[in-house]
Amino acid sequence: MHPFCTGLFRRLAKAAIPFLMAATAPLPALAAFPDKPIRMVVPFAPGGGTDLVARAMGITMGEDLGQPVIVDNKPGGSTIIGTDAVAKSAPDGYTLVMATLAHAVNPSLHKKLPFDTEKAFAPVMLVGRSPNVLVVKPDSPIKTVQDLIAAAKAKPGKLNYASQGAGTSAHLAGELFKNMARVDLNHIPYRGAGPAITDLLGGQVDVMFATAAAVAPHLESGKLRAVAVTTAQRSQAPALSKVPTIAESGVPNYVADSWYGLFVPAGTPPAVITRLNAAAKKAVHTDAFRKRAEQEGLAISGGTPDEFGRYVKAESQRWSKVIKDANITAD
């Protein structure tokens, strides 16, 4: 080869090296993820079912990711306050929200939200589904669903039922019950299941449609008594296996279960979502989480982000019709 050509080739090759390295190197943001603690927002007060599930998952997720997963409770506003904080966070995978049914139904319950639910979030994983449980104090005269219906009809609008917030699965379970049983109950919303259960134990409210995770310890200790579950079939959880469904107790076709799932802000890189999904999936399939889930009747999912996205869309459509037919509003 002519000396001039040889020299030119060498100079071109040398100049191309940085570009080739840049093209083949992994993106720094993805290669390093995560390189700092991750925040998991729980839009409820501490002590409720969502909080307990988030904390149980956070420990194992942190071990898998090599960074701590810190649970950040931001209650209030029918979960909107905490959810909005995530919607406005950087789409880098370092902020997640442990969402519930409220995430899917808030657009139907509220005239205006500070975010567009369909466009502001990206699904990560459906953690699982569980029953709501109609619970009372052990000394309550309400022992069956029919007792509750009779008491409500005897004193329309006088019996109070608690929920962990407007728009939550517990709230909608109560509103659906009112509509299908044709009774008038007074809804008392709280900033989480913990405060609601405290008032139920203290006698400030009469009944509660609570998530199984939130009331499991109180059922086990005998501080609360389960009257019925809201699922189509009886729960397989040891503490609930003998508890009848509301449907079999005189309100045919009644179903109002709850669920937990993780979202990140829209625009989060797909590779980061995949990494978070893998860590979350590993967390829900640990022996410790499986045992806890079994005790509380939580049916573990652990699927893909796309599967969760489709599930939430179907939930939103189903409950939108219920909300409209029952004229339910949170505003």
From TrEMBL:
<protein>
    <submittedName>
        <fullName>Probable extra-cytoplasmic solute receptor</fullName>
    </submittedName>
</protein>
<feature type="signal peptide">
    <location>
        <begin position="1"/>
        <end position="31"/>
    </location>
</feature>
<dbReference type="InterPro" id="IPR005064">
    <property type="entry name" value="BUG"/>
</dbReference>
<dbReference type="Pfam" id="PF03401">
    <property type="entry name" value="TctC"/>
</dbReference>
<comment type="similarity">
    <text>Belongs to the UPF0065 (bug) family.</text>
</comment>
<dbReference type="InterPro" id="IPR042100">
    <property type="entry name" value="Bug_dom1"/>
</dbReference>
<keyword id="KW-0732">Signal</keyword>
<keyword id="KW-0675">Receptor</keyword>
